[in-house]
What we know:
The chain has helices at residues 29-53, 70-77, 96-99, 105-110, 130-133, 139-158, 172-184, 194-200, 203-216, 232-250, and strands spanning 57-64, 86-90, 117-121, 161-169, 224-228. Helix 2 (70-77) packs across helix 10. The chain has ten helices and five strands, in the order αβαβααβααβαααβα. Pfam families: PPK2.
Amino acid sequence: MPKPITFDPGDKIKLEDVPARPDVGGWDKKSAAERIEHNTEQSRELAYRLYAENKQTLLLVLQGMDTAGKDGTIRTVTTGINPQSFQIAPFKQPSAEELDHDFLWRVHKAVPRRGNIGIFNRSHYEDVLVVRVHNLVPESEWRRRYDRINEFEKLLTEGHVKIVKCFLHVSKEEQRERLQARLDNPDKRWKFSKGDLAERKLWGDYQAAYEDALNKCNTEHAPWHIIPSDRKWFRNLIVSELLKDALERLDPQFPPSEEGLDGIVVE
């Protein structure tokens, strides 16, 4: 079974050394699709039990460069699972109200309720990525945020929130091809903005920012998983496996039924 790329807390990883298109080990689109279907079937039952139990929470965090496939990953790994089990939060440019609070205020509000699976499409890491690359806050401020993020994630895990953090690792050339494909397809042009080209010119700055976020916020309680994402089906396969495995480790159980129900006949 393909695995994400992980590393121990305290170890350092350089993204330029991590392949975005690794050897798939005999897997292909067909076999991956079959395995993903199996994983989602398992996750569906586990999500149902998680919701019924109402004691634990699973939070899937998806980060990645533009075109890395956050939306596509969500569509694939949640197929067939009751939408009532999910809380999906996309983190875009903060509102005026959100800017009037600390950077984690809007994030904490979006943490899923007990019994639910939460998915962050981008996350609190935007506040050590975009704000750093575009100099939106002083360096002294964003550098302090790594410790705050680690403390925040520790707080969540102590409150029975299981965090699965995935960095969707796409190559610069693959991003170019995906952006061009959006331009060439009239039905996909709505997804393209000239601003995407300006952001692409900052590729090196973003890679350095991501590298620091991965290295400084890779903890025992909330480790990073690097997902090679140049092949969409391979990316989806790994994330679906991570989601299923996380639910299995939570091992949610149905709550006991009310006493005295035996022999009752509904008329």
